[in-house]
Structure formats: structure tokens, C-alpha cells
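Customer escalation, tier 2.

The customer says the design service returned an amino acid string that "doesn't look like it belongs to this structure." They asked us to rerun it and document both sides in this ticket. The original C-alpha cells are below, unchanged.
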């Protein structure tokens, strides 16, 4: 299709022939086909092939009634019977119109019978004249058919309105993370108020000129709304099987409307996003009032209508899942905003985001009033006005985020309170988006979407109590588990008091603040940092070596934050050195011989000072203004406060991080630890549970929950949390070690453990050693001793109740299970085996105690050996004649008897 005839190219005929041969069924409109460069015969072949396909609908709009192609079409494609066939079709539609109008009259509806009679008169006149000038009558027949369809559609719509009011169908959402309820308007053409009936041509009836050009293709049904720059009408597109479209007409009385309309046409035709209403066409209004924009029609409910349903608690907009719907609205709107903000052709803002400009249609959303779309800092209308926009509505991307935060907050305020940390995270996300200072808001729509999507997963996980995993956007994995020792084998000091009795597991303390500071997740390096590539390839396993290596690198914020964390790790090493026996000097403070050696306490102070200096320098490089809104600054300040043992101050710093990035795991994990250390167990449990529910691989959160449950006397809940740590987590072995300790532990002052408890503990130890990665023989020995002590207590308890423990044990753990296991992992089957095994275990534990010469270590060795001698069974037997006396087995270190 060309605006003017162009020279014919030889390849055109071949191309048209190929298209004609492969042409599918289509619905298409050809404008000015007489201007085509190809010959009329070639175009006719293409049209003939398209028309031969099933379900083909073709509309050809000629400007020249004497065009050769038009005459050729009439002679060879339509045939001489075509005018009569069109007349018969129009007569059938007029008959149907009479029937509808008669029914309307009987029901008291206003009918336009006079219009139908006039159309019938026009038809008869055309039938008489068509024989002499069939081509001249073709256009008049086409217009007559359009006018008949106008009246028939209007009459049917009026009849439908009388029969059934407008209905809205809403179906419950699916189970997917981002599923929304299905919202659909049943019969949107019944929209009230309807405009005046489209008039028959050629009368100048009421409103006849308003859509003069549009009437040929579009039948206006009703007025939908008034937007920022005009009105929006619902119409049928006759060229596309009466598809519903929206026609937008700019206000001719607005002095800026024409200029705005021109800008809007250029922008809107280029915009193509699934969550923004699509502009199909722009047509001229004959009265000069301006263009009509033909847009995609999206039927549904505005977010203001959704808000009203939330207030009324109408299903499915009731209950805790409403918060997830609100988050999904935000994520999808942010996707559209990110598209507008980052367009290569021209960066745009939506500008007028409000509850009435977002439609929930089907199971998605549409931004429907795009009149206010404009370039950055251009004036325009606003419903919600950001503080920086001023009276003329100039704004950038931060203004769009402010408007979105306001819209979603309005929905959230209408929703029922669910009282979870997820709700708090959602409110914090929206609070950051609506901060008065644009610099304090999210930097981009993409950044806000990342946090909102993480909050969506948090809401879902807490509602369903099931994992909804996604990796962190800003933090790496935790280096070491914050297990507080629960994930390690029992310490040797457990046996320092002497005696072979089973000890209470008791409440478990969180790790020391200095350990937590070193083990909390490290942030991902900023990709814009000059050192980013080098930091990506850096190993963090040798803090001292890495400090030496990076000393000569260019100082950038990310490098200084890394050095801050490395100094905190070195401070932990110095603090641990304080507890070692007879600490030796670790370095010298100068080169002179008179300089005194630096003790671990000196080293601790030096490393803490260096960590603080690195963090301050990073803040200076970022800049005072930016640093006030950069979450990395309070994050590292919180680590420094923990390293100084100032947990209350650390909690305040991590709270600021949580307010800046509410969807992240790391600040919640840090706050859970701080609350736990400060004795706020309920708050600690809330933060730990929020992290663990969303990502079971977060072993530190699982351990935090386990400690909380043990303190409440709920060991099974602690086991449930630890069992959820998945096999691919680096915290799996520690979690399974803790599980063995809890299964084998006593949680009451006067316990009566059962064989069932022992069986579970034994099976947990067997899995840990054989399948879960425990390779430390010393740790295995301590766990085994702890388990054997439980078995002694179980045997004694069973006897008191008159049960034979050994036969019941054989039922629970058949002897066949022992065949493929090493002796150390076999279950003792007799009391003698049990006592000998436990005695030998105590002796092996004594070998694990350091030979430091300290009185504390010597006392522990003595206590363990006393346990070994005390528990070992004494056996007396007759010595056969001729045999030499033997030393008792416990003196000779004898082996345990077979059987």
C-alpha cells in the first residue's frame, strides 16, 4: 500500500503471486488500493486468494470511484448480482430491526421506528438506481448497511439493558504466586449512560457530526468516562468482527488539547506494553474538533472499585491474601513504569497514576488513561501530586513511585490487618516510596519492584507456612551458621562435673555479638563500583591476607566496606585469642627493640578502630547527602556495633536497613539476633520465622527458631525447623547435628525418656554419619557418648515400668540392621555391651582434652576417666586350673565381649 502510484517492479508480480498462493484466512482493511504499485490484475489475484479462504473478511476503501481496480473487482470478483445480494442482506437486517423495535415498544422502551422506515425508503431508491450505475451505488449501499447496523446494535443494547442489568463476574484467584482474581464485565456494551443513538445517514441528527468519520467503521455504544483531556466512549469495530474498542476524544475547548493530542498520538502509537492500554488507530473528526484515538478496550474494575470491595470484605477481596493482591498490583504497575522510564526513544513518566487510572481486567491490570504520559520534568495533570512536582505537575521517575506508593497505601488501609511481619514489610516498602524527599525513595522502578516482589513472597510464605524461595538481591549467603554452638557436637565441658548421668540440654544461647558481626551475610558489591570485577573474583577465606592484598587498591566505597568486614573478622580472632591459655604476643607496635609486644586485647582494639575508620571513609566517598539514603552505611554501622558488643545500638542500625530494603533476608536475620540477645523472644521469633518460612536454606534462621522453641520447652518444634534445612544448604550438616542433640537431649528436670525417643535419636545419628556429611571423628564420638547416656536412662526407665527394654529395642531396631555397619555405629544389644561401649567412649573423650597443663583441663580429664571406670561393669568368674590370673578388663583396656 503506497500513498501515490510508484513505478512497477518486475518482482512485484512474483511476490504477489506467492502471497496469493500461501494466503491464510484473514480480516483486513485495504486503504486506497488503487494507489498500489502493482497491476490491478495482480492485486485482484491476491484478493481472490484471500477471499477464497474460510473466515476471510476484507474491507477496501477507494477514493476514486473510476479506479480500474474497482471496476475489475466488480466485474470479476463481485459479479453483477452483488448489488442485489447486498440489498437482500440489508432487507433482512431491517426486518430484524423491526422485530427488536416492536419488542421494545411492547416493553415500554423508546423505539426509533421512524429511523427504520427512512432506511427502508433509502434501500428501495438504491435498488431502482443500482442497475444503471452499480459502482456509483456501491458506496451508498455500504453506508446504508452501516446505518442499519448502527440502529440494530443500539436497539439490541437497549433491549439487553431492559432484560438484564450490567453484571460483573469475579472468580477466585489461582494458587500461583502472582495470580489475581478473574474480573470480567458481563456485556460491557450495556454501560450507562448510553450516548444518543447513532443517526442514520445523511440526517444531521443529535450528535451526528461528532463521530462522522468514525461511523463508517466504529459504532459508538456508550460513554465510559471523562479523562484528563477529554472523554472516552465504548464502540464496536465493524472491520474486526464488532470487536469492542475505546474511542477517546480530546476536549476541543481546552486550548492545550490539540498540542497535547499531537504529542499523545506520537507517544502512544509507539508504546507497547502488556500492562498499558494499546492505541490501535487515530482517525480525524470531520467537524475539526480533533482526532479520535482508537484504543484497546479493557473491561474490568478500577482499583477504586476494588478498594470499595475490600472495605466491604467481598470475596475474593477479603482475608489475608488481599495483601498479596496489592503487592501483585504494585509489581505489575512497576513493570509498566520501568518500561516507560527506560524507553530508548524517549524516557517517559506516566504522570497521573491514581486508583481510577488502573483497571483490574481479567487476571491482570492495565494503565488505562495515558493522556498524562509525558517526558521527564514536563508539565502535566496529576491526581496524586508528589511534593516536588509543584502546581504544574513536573516530575521524574521518583514522582511516579510516589504516586504508586500512595495508590497501594490506599488499598492497604482498606484491607484487614493480618498482624504478620509481612504486612509490616509491605507498609515499609510503601512508606519508602512515599518519602517526602525523592532521594529517600527507591532509585528506580526496578529496585522497588525487586523489594515488593520479595515482600510478596514473604506474605505468601507466612500465610501458607510454606517456602517461597528466591535468592537475595543484595546479599550473599551466610558464611557460617549463627547456631550458637547447637550445630556442633556437645562440648567436652558438658562432662566437667563428673558422673555418667544424662544431662539436660537446656536453653541454648545465641552466638556472641562479635561472632554474629563476622558471620552475618555480606552484601553483593555494587556493579557501578570501579572495583566490582576484582571484588567478584576475590576469595574471602583469609581475612588477613586479603587485607594485605587490597591495601594498595584504589579506595572505593565497596572496597572500604569489604575492609571494614575483614577487620571485624580479625577482631573476632583477637577476641577468641583472649580466651586461650597463656596468650602470647601476636605482633609488635613498632620496629624498635624497646617497643612492647601487642597483646590480643591490643589487637582487638586496633582491628575495631580500623573497621570504624574504613566505614567512615566509605561514607565520605559516597557523599553526605547520598549516604543518608544508602542502606550499606547503616548495615556496616550495625556490624561495627555488634563487634563492640553494643547490641542495642546495632538493633537501631539494622532497623534502618530494614526500613530501606524491607524485602531482604539479611536485616531481618540481624534483627532477629539482636532481639534474641536482648531478651525480646517474641520479636526475635517473628523475624526468624519470616526468614525461615520464605527460604528454608537460611540455616541461621532455623537455628534461631530452634533456640526459641527449646526455651519454650517445645523440642519437637525445634526439630521441625531444623529438619526443613534442605540437603543443598551449606548449613545442612550443622542442622542435622543439632537435630541429633535435641533428639538425644533431656528437656525436663525429671524425664522419663522412651525407647521411641532413643530410636529417633539413633536414626538421626546414623543418617548424620552415613549420609549427611559429618566427617569429624571427634564430633561423632561426643554425639555417640551423649546418645549412649540416653540409652542407659531409657533402659532404667523401662525396667521401672516392668518392660523388657532389650526385646522392645530388638523390635524397633532389628539386629539385621547392624550387619553392614561399623561396630561403633551398632546399637548395644545387652546391658554389658552398653556399659562397656559408654566406658570406652568416656576414655576416648579424655584423649580429646588438650594437654595444656591448666587445672581446668586436668580436672576434665580426671572426670572423664572416673566416668569410664565407674560405668564399666565388673565381672567375676572362676579361673580354670592351670591358667594364669588376668588383669581386669578395665585395667587392660580390653575389648568389649561379643554377643
Amino acid at each position: 500500500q503506497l500513498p501515490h502510484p510508484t513505478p512497477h517492479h518486475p518482482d512485484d508480480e512474483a511476490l504477489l503471486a506467492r502471497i496469493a498462493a500461501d494466503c491464510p484466512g484473514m480480516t483486513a482493511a485495504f486503504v486506497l488500493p488503487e494507489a498500489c504499485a502493482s497491476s490491478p490484475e495482480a492485486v485482484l489475484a491476491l484478493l481472490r486468494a484471500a477471499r477464497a479462504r474460510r473466515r476471510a473478511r476484507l474491507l477496501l476503501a477507494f477514493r476514486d470511484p473510476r479506479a480500474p481496480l474497482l471496476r475489475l473487482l466488480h466485474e470479476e470478483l463481485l459479479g453483477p448480482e452483488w448489488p442485489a445480494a447486498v440489498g437482500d442482506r440489508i432487507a433482512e437486517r431491517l426486518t430484524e430491526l423491526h422485530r427488536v423495535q416492536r419488542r421494545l415498544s411492547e416493553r415500554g422502551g423508546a423505539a426509533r421506528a421512524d429511523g427504520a422506515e427512512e432506511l427502508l425508503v433509502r434501500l428501495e431508491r438504491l435498488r431502482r438506481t443500482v442497475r444503471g450505475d452499480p459502482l456509483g451505488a456501491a458506496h451508498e449501499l455500504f453506508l446504508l448497511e452501516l446505518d442499519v447496523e448502527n440502529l440494530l446494535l443500539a436497539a439490541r443494547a437497549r433491549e439487553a439493558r431492559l432484560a438484564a442489568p450490567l453484571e460483573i463476574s469475579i472468580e477466585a484467584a489461582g494458587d500461583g504466586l502472582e495470580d489475581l482474581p478473574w474480573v470480567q464485565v458481563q456485556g460491557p456494551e450495556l454501560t450507562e449512560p448510553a450516548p444518543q443513538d447513532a443517526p442514520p445517514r445523511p440526517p444531521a441528527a443529535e450528535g451526528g457530526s461528532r463521530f462522522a468519520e468514525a461511523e463508517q467503521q466504529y459504532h459508538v455504544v456508550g460513554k465510559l468516562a471523562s479523562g484528563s483531556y477529554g472523554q472516552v466512549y465504548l464502540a464496536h469495530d465493524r472491520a474486526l468482527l464488532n470487536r469492542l474498542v475505546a474511542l477517546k476524544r480530546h476536549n476541543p475547548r481546552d486550548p492545550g488539547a490539540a498540542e497535547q493530542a499531537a504529542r499523545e498520538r506520537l507517544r502512544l502509537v509507539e508504546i507497547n506494553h502488556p500492562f498499558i492500554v494499546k492505541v490501535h488507530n487515530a482517525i480525524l473528526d470531520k467537524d475539526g474538533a480533533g482526532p479520535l484515538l482508537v484504543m484497546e478496550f479493557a473491561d474490568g474494575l478500577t482499583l477504586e472499585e476494588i478498594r470499595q470491595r475490600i472495605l466491604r470484605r467481598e470475596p475474593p477481596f477479603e482475608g489475608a491474601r488481599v495483601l498479596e493482591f496489592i503487592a501483585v498490583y504494585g509489581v505489575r504497575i512497576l513493570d509498566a513504569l520501568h518500561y516507560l522510564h527506560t524507553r530508548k526513544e524517549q524516557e517517559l513518566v506516566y504522570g497521573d497514576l491514581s486508583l481510577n487510572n488502573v483497571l483490574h481486567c481479567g487476571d491482570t491490570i492495565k494503565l488505562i488513561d495515558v493522556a498524562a504520559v509525558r517526558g521527564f520534568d514536563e508539565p502535566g495533570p496529576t491526581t496524586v501530586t508528589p511534593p516536588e512536582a509543584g502546581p504544574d505537575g513536573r516530575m521524574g521517575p521518583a514522582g511516579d513511585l510516589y504516586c504508586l506508593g500512595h495508590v497501594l497505601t490506599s488499598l492497604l488501609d482498606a484491607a484487614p490487618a493480618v498482624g504478620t511481619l509481612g504486612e509490616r514489610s509491605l507498609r515499609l516498602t510503601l512508606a519508602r516510596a512515599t518519602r517526602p524527599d525523592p532521594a529517600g525513595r527507591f532509585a528506580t522502578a526496578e529496585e522497588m519492584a525487586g523489594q515488593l516482589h520479595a515482600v510478596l513472597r514473604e506474605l505468601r510464605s507466612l500465610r501458607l507456612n510454606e517456602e517461597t524461595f528466591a535468592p537475595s538481591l543484595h546479599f550473599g549467603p551466610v558464611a557460617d551458621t549463627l547456631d550458637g554452638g547447637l550445630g556442633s557436637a556437645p562440648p567436652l565441658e558438658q562432662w566437667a562435673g563428673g558422673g555418667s548421668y544424662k544431662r539436660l540440654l537446656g536453653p541454648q544461647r545465641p552466638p556472641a555479638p562479635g561472632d554474629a558481626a563476622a558471620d552475618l551475610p555480606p552484601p553483593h558489591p555494587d556493579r557501578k563500583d570501579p572495583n566490582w570485577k576484582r571484588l567478584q573474583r576475590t576469595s574471602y577465606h583469609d581475612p588477613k591476607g586479603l587485607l594485605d592484598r587490597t591495601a594498595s587498591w584504589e579506595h572505593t566505597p565497596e572496597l572500604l566496606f569489604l575492609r571494614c568486614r575483614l577487620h571485624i573478622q580479625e577482631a573476632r580472632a583477637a577476641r577468641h585469642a583472649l580466651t586461650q591459655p597463656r596468650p602470647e604476643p601476636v605482633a609488635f607496635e613498632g620496629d624498635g627493640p624497646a617497643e612492647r609486644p601487642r597483646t590480643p586485647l591490643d589487637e582487638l582494639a586496633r582491628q575495631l578502630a580500623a573497621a570504624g575508620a574504613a566505614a567512615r571513609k566509605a561514607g565520605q566517598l559516597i557523599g553526605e547527602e547520598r549516604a543518608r539514603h544508602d542502606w550499606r552505611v547503616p548495615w556496616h554501622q550495625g556490624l561495627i556495633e555488634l563487634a563492640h558488643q553494643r547490641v542495642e545500638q546495632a538493633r537501631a542500625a539494622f532497623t534502618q536497613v530494614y526500613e530501606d530494603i524491607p524485602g531482604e533476608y539479611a536485616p531481618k536475620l540481624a534483627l532477629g539476633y539482636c532481639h534474641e540477645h536482648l531478651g525480646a523472644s517474641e520479636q526475635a521469633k517473628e523475624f526468624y520465622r519470616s526468614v525461615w518460612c520464605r527460604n528454608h536454606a537460611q540455616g541461621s534462621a532455623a537455628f534461631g527458631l530452634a533456640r526459641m522453641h527449646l526455651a519454650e520447652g517445645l523440642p519437637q518444634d525445634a526439630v521441625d525447623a531444623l529438619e526443613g534445612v534442605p540437603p543443598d544448604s551449606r548449613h545442612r550438616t550443622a542442622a542435622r547435628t543439632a537435630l541429633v542433640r535435641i533428639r538425644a537431649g533431656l528437656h525436663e528436670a525429671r524425664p522419663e525418656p522412651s525407647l521411641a525417643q532413643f530410636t529417633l535419636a539413633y536414626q538421626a545419628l546414623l543418617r548424620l554419619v552415613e549420609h549427611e556429611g559429618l566427617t569429624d571423628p571427634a564430633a561423632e564420638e561426643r554425639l555417640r557418648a551423649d546418645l549412649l547416656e540416653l540409652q542407659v536412662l531409657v533402659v532404667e526407665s523401662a525396667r521401672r515400668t516392668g518392660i523388657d527394654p532389650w526385646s522392645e529395642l530388638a523390635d524397633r531396631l532389628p539386629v539385621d540392621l547392624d550387619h553392614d555397619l561399623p561396630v561403633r555405629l551398632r546399637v548395644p544389644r545387652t546391658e554389658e555391651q552398653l556399659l562397656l561401649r559408654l566406658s570406652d567412649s568416656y576414655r576416648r573423650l579424655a584423649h580429646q582434652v588438650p594437654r595444656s597443663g591448666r587445672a581446668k583441663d586436668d580436672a576434665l580429664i580426671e572426670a572423664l576417666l572416673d566416668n569410664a571406670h565407674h560405668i564399666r561393669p565388673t565381672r567375676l568368674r572362676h579361673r580354670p586350673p592351670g591358667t594364669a590370673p588376668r588383669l581386669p578388663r578395665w585395667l587392660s583396656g580390653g575389648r568389649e565381649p561379643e554377643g
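Tier 2 assessment: The sequence is consistent with the input. Confidence is low (pLDDT under 50) at residues 1-6, 192-213, 885-899. Residues 134-163 form the longest helix (30 residues). Sent an explanation to the customer and offered a walkthrough call.
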